[in-house]
Amino acid sequence: MKNIKSIDPINLETKKLHKILLSSIAPRPIAFASTIDSNGNVNLSPFSYFNVFSSNPPILIFSPSRRVRDNTTKHTLENAMETKEVVINVVNFPIVEQMSKSSVEYEKGVNEFIETGLTQVKSLLVKPPRVLESPISFECKVQDIISLGESGGAGQLIIAKVVQIHIDKKFIDNKGDIDSEKLDLVARMGGDWYTRTTKESMFKIPKP
Ligand SMILES: Cc1cc2nc3c(=O)[nH]c(=O)nc-3n(C[C@H](O)[C@H](O)[C@H](O)COP(=O)(O)O)c2cc1C
Predict the structure, then answer these.
(1) Does domain 25-199 have CATH number 2.30.110.10?
(2) How remote is the CA of residue 175 from the centroid of ligand 1, in Å?
């Protein structure tokens, strides 16, 4: 018999529950989200409550939560509500340190491109810039924002429709597909853990 610990989440403080969820639902891809406020101030922050949920239409969803500490909201959420646009850049190993630095809780109006030394490139169809150093960037229009609660820790789903894609040609193989071996994407796990998709950590399963 396995020795199982069973938990009713109602009886757990949010911090502990958060830890269990983040260590269990892993690895999670990272949305490196660029937004602007209504005065044009640029923001860049990472979010691992993130994935693709539809191909037609192409929809990406990520979730800046209300802070557990003081129930305040994140600048990215405020900007997405104000200006309804976001660029989601993917994160690979060469930019992981800058991505981490950008997660510092800077004052409103601070541009994390400048803090991290990453390069802003003008987008084609939306106002927030994309990250030059990211292998792939998705320009998106915010289609909807769904609040999952009003308390600290409550996710706020930003549903983003992709309107333009930029792929660094270095990561396109001779068949015209994205080369997963070259990308070296990183993902978030529990605590301070990350994982890296190197050739050694990847394997294939042919379709049965
Ligand atoms: C890899 C990584 C993933 C993160 N994922 C999330 C997330 O999914 N949701 C969230 O609310 N905060 C997440 N954070 C924390 C935010 O990035 C952090 O609170 C940031 O300061 C928010 O910036 P903003 O207020 O400028 O939007 C993550 C941090 C890191 C380093």
Answers:
(1) yes
(2) 36
